[in-house]
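Appendix B, Record 12. Input sequence as logged:
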Amino acid sequence: MLDDFMIRATLAGVGVACAAAPLGSFVVWRRMAYFGDATAHAAILGIALSLALNVSIFAGAVAVALAMALTVTLLTGRGYAMDTLLGVLAHSALAFGLVAVSFLSGIRIDLMAYLFGDILAVSRGDLAVIWGGAALVIGLIAWRWSALLTSTLSEELAYAGGMDPRREQLVLTLALAVTVAVAIKVVGVLLIAAMLIIPAAAARPLSRTPEEMALIAALIGSGSAVAGLRAAYVLDTPAGPSIVCFAALIFLVTSVFRGVRA
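Logged structural output:
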């Protein structure tokens, strides 16, 4: 069954959607959209370092994305506004990554595939990495769900309950780094943030509880992956951007529904 490239691509898209849905919900609740974008941009530097050092691209992307997220966390509140700090680090990491790629002599690299994804080229090994990463992210979020919700609602309430909001921020940072690494093959560095934010934002008007929002976001992300792949196959359009386009259309529909219901 997995010999069919469209089946592998569909499974990869659904895997990324399942990983991104609960994490994207927290990104929306905490207004961390630019934080996710910065972490994704840093991944291209991780790819360059991985190729130069001949190590796993997944490991390199996770390491650099995590380093970026930790750097932002440590530097926040030290004289720089968050959006300024994220802007500097995100675009600097992307620029350094692209320059580093240009120095890789003797290594053939399809830069567009890493920037916009190449879901149709997903292999069985890639599927194992994607679903393994998704399982790790889902398990991590499920384990810390209550503490993460409390910290998101109020840091003071978290402290009163014996929780450390900084530790929960670290959990989100780790989950974000893993999600970015597994999503590179599917939608690419430049569209990862879209798969984190758009399904969660589209699910918000349709949900009454945080758990419902995460579940509906997963369904929207998965549906966008399936519909986007079908459209890409029929219309001969780029698969990754097509997936994001369908997610954006669903967001538009739910936004209109929210306006009508209000």
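Residues 148 and 168 are 6 Å apart (CA to CA).
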